[in-house]
Amino acid sequence: MTATLHADIARLRRTNPRIFTRPLPERLRTWGLWLGFVAVLAFGLWWIDASPMRIVNGLNKLGLLVTLMIPPWPGDGLWDYTYAMFETLAMAFLGTLIAFIVALPLGFLGAKNIVPNWLFHFGLRRFFDTFRGIDGLVWALIFVSAVGLGPFAGVLAIAVGDVMVFGKLFAEAIENVDNKPVDGVRASGGDNIHVVRLGVFPQVFPVMMSHVLYFFESNVRSATILGIVGAGGIGLQLSDRIRINNWQEAAFIILMILVTVAIIDAISRRIRARLI
User: Fold this and answer.
1) Best-predicted range by mean pLDDT among 19-28, 36-45, 229-238?
2) Which of its termini does the chain have fewer beta carbons within 10 Å around, N or C?
3) Which stretch of DSSP H or E encloses residue 91?
4) Which of 2-11, 28-37, 127-136: highest mean pLDDT?
5) Nearest residue to 86 via CA among 223, 247, 239
């Protein structure tokens, strides 16, 4: 049996040598890629001055900050923090809702099976891609400068940033619908509006709502960051407490954010599971 096994292995070596040993050029190319990766990583660490001493000093300071945060305490600002948290939730909800309303028709216009004009489709998709590359924080800085400080700038930043992403996701969902219901509506004498209303929309609506719920959950976290640059909400409160080194209240605000996001995540996950 052992001799048969050795004979089979020898035959495999003759017929499929790449299974056991790769050719020298291929091995050299692989090692070259790995060496290039290590060189780029080493250069990047050197460029940002990521020395072990800086890491040790940073961890020591981080430990000191954690010590100053214990115990988390709201002080006299519990009502202000609660109000700011609801303001952040309202920013995320309104921004996501506005983005959904605006992106819904754009998604249908950007789908090839709805608007077959390739030039229009190409231009609209590139429009989505261009503005999708701008981060929400940049939009927040722009709108804070345009409309002033406060949650209105945050709502606009979330809405504009999400419209482009929703438009692309909705268009892709519409392009992947099953054609059988569409053909059934057409065979029953339905026009294009009936096809969209009865054959396409019922198929893509659960997918769209799943995306919207996920982005609402994400936008709650984003709204916190937007508040730090002046868009209002709990982020502004957190930034103020950190600026004056009031670390106990800062820790309390961070815990509020974590608990709120966890609750929204649990509720959103249940709703998405039912929709899907």
Assistant:
1) 36-45
2) N
3) helix 78-109
4) 28-37
5) 223
Q: What is the pLDDT of residue 70?
A: 87
Alpha-carbon distance values, 221 to 26, 148, 251, 262 (Å): 46, 21, 16, 11
The structure tokens 């990047």 sit at 44
Do 42 and 179 share a domain, yes or no? Answer: no
Same domain, 46 and 83: no
Which two structure tokens, joined as six digits, stand for 142?
Answer: 């722009």
User: Crossing angle, helix 201-226 and helix 234-243, to 10 degrees?
Assistant: 20
Q: How many CB atoms lie within 10 A of CB 175?
A: 15
Under 8 Å between Cβ of 108 and 114: yes
Q: Answer with the residue of higher pLDDT: 233 or 189.
A: 233
Residue among 102, 124, 131 at smallest CA distance from 172 = 124
> Which of 239, 213, 200 has the alpha carbon at shortest distance from 105?
200
Domain hosting 8: range is 2-50
Q: Would you say residue 14 lies in a domain?
A: yes
Give dist(CA 104, CA 169) in Å, integer.
10
What is the number of domains present in the chain? 2
Helix (H) or strand (E) holding 129: helix 118-132
E strand or H helix at 24, and its extent?
A: helix 24-47
Burial of 25 from C-beta contacts in 10 A (0-12 / 13-18 / 19+):
exposed
Q: Which of 92, 80, 79, 81 is nearest to 221 (CA)?
A: 92
pTM value is 0.80
